# Entry
Amino acid sequence: MSAERYLYRGVNADLYAETYGQLEPKASGQMFKRPVYYGEKVFYGDGTTYGESEANAVIMHQRNSSAYPSAGVSTTPILENAKSFATHHGKYPRGYVYKIDTELLEEAGVKAYPVGDYAVQPAIPGDREVILVAESCGALPQKIVVEVIEVAT
# Structure
């Protein structure tokens, strides 16, 4: 896990309202594993392994979570990046940033997957993405969120 105490997750106002403020993964309820087979958009030496694994889920999620949805929720230790993600780089007039305390993850049953530990070449290397997965593979427990910050463009 990263040395940072806090992780951040930025979401636009529509998603915030749609999920009632919950940190809900795109593939809620599905196991955090993904199969990878020859012929898919994987690359030799990118860290993926043949068959089903958590490592594959991390790599494919960070590559494109819309095309490869998972039970994971992307976060970053960089507040400014999360603010930018919250407004989709200015596309939305406002959004929300969740401040997550990493010292509460284990007790809450949340596993952290630092992308740099799995992907040979992370899709957004400067983001230092950490994917969080609840034990239930559903919404992250609210008790890990210590603050929700409203941001505007």
Summary: The chain has a mean pLDDT of 92. Residues 105 and 144 are 6 Å apart (CA to CA).
